[in-house]
Amino acid sequence: MLPKGIVKPKEGKAELTQDAARTANRDGGGPATNGSKADASSGPVSAEAGPTTSPEGPTAAAPHTAATPVQRQELNRLLGQFTKAGTSAQKAEAATLLARRYENVQRFDSAGYYYEQVAAAQPGPQALQQAADAYFQAFSFASSDERIKLLGGKARDLYTKVLAKSPDNLDAKTNLGMTYMASDNPVKGVTLLREVLAADPKNERALYDLGILAVQSNQYDKAVERFQQLVKVNPKNVNAQFYLGVTSARTGAKEQARAAFLTAKSLSADPALAASVEEELAKLK
Question: Could you give the CA distance from residue 45 to residue 33 in angstroms, rounded to a whole number?
Fold first, then answer.
């Protein structure tokens, strides 16, 4: 498996999508994104349901499969505290603790739900962005079209509110753009990413995202340009070097591809990345 952010190159978009589905593991999968799912494989229980962890282990009603018994106990204690909170301040305090604990066990959809409760009790750009970022994480790892649509929509709504209060927040605008790319209005997503680059031509995230989008639409020449820009900004960006190698190979620039792959390998000690680089280098012979 490649590091987060690197998608192993395939021949088509369908295979890229399948790879994303196989690596999805940080979206709890609750239909309301509050952990109230019926899938026993992942996701926390809702606060409203109260403590339901079974001593026999994970069940459909208590699917804390990524948490240790101690972590589950702590989550249940905090869920009870959240349910009993009498004031908005107490509610926000308990929700903040719950969100952080869910982040620790990588249940980002549940973290987003509780950060959203914090934002409802104490509205402000920071609280809204914490909720948006958590939903965006879950969206990034979502394993089905339904979940991508649901979590992308939640993140999109929250980032829109963040930008209404802080229009110069380029991180929020970049993530908002990526959620639009997975919606029925991808043109809006490209427009937002280009706006980020207009404001900050060296913005690494926007350059990277536009490069990846070019890869996914098989526009390798455009992708090469984006990754070349990115490695000029940050020559130590492993992902950019790797994808510069991939896209250069697809355009026939084998020596440029070889140099980029070797640079990527030299920048990381990850054995999975090294194996992928060797695989790609073998294709150049």
Answer: 10
